[in-house]
Amino acid sequence: MTMSGEHDVGKRRDAAFWRSALRDAGLRVTRQRVTVLELLDADPHASAERIFAAATSLRAELGSLTLQAVYGILDDLGRTGLVRRFDAPRTAARFETRIGDNHHHAVCDECGRIEDIDCSVGEAPCLVPDAPNGFAVHTAEVVYRGVCADCAPR
Asked: For every residue of the chain, which 3-state class applies, written as one string?
């Protein structure tokens, strides 16, 4: 992700990058926020619960990070555009650091695996809606459901 919001797919960012991004977003830099961003960058499509569980091994370094605190951090990060929240069928809300490119998601109905799908049609918002008069659409969220390559042979 450049500071403009674009993300180089597959490229992980370090703590220095996230500290700078937090400052640019007008958020106070805390060890908890940086850690949540690093964990989410390493594990795209994670739920708040999964981020909380991953942070368990870092408790001595982070202090008393609670699940409620993780939700609060994710809310702050989402509000300022540093993370994107999306809802996948039959699962808790998911979060990702890949922002600014209006990509979509494919969800396996068997194992729940989530994969990114680049813009479906044309430029963002990727689909041309029949929007109400005066409504400016800037994002389209599409969830494709099916069976992933690992589950298909079963």
From this structure: CCCCCCCCCCCCCCHHHHHHHHHHCCCCCCHHHHHHHHHHHHCCCECHHHHHHHHHHHHHHHCCCCHHHHHHHHHHHHHCCCCEEECCCCCCCEEECCCCCCCEEEEECCCCCEEEECCCCCCCCCCCCCCCCCCCCCCCCCEEEECCCCCCCC
| 126 in a known ligand binding site | no
CATH tag, 15-94:
1.10.10.10
Check whether 123 is labelled as a binding-site residue.
Answer: yes
Residue 108 annotated as binding? yes
* Residue 151 counted as an annotated binding residue: yes
Q: What is the pLDDT of residue 128?
A: 63
Residues of the chain with pLDDT under 50: 1-7
Domain boundaries, the chain: 15-94, 102-154
The confidence score (pLDDT) of residue 1 equals 38
CATH class of 102-154: alpha beta
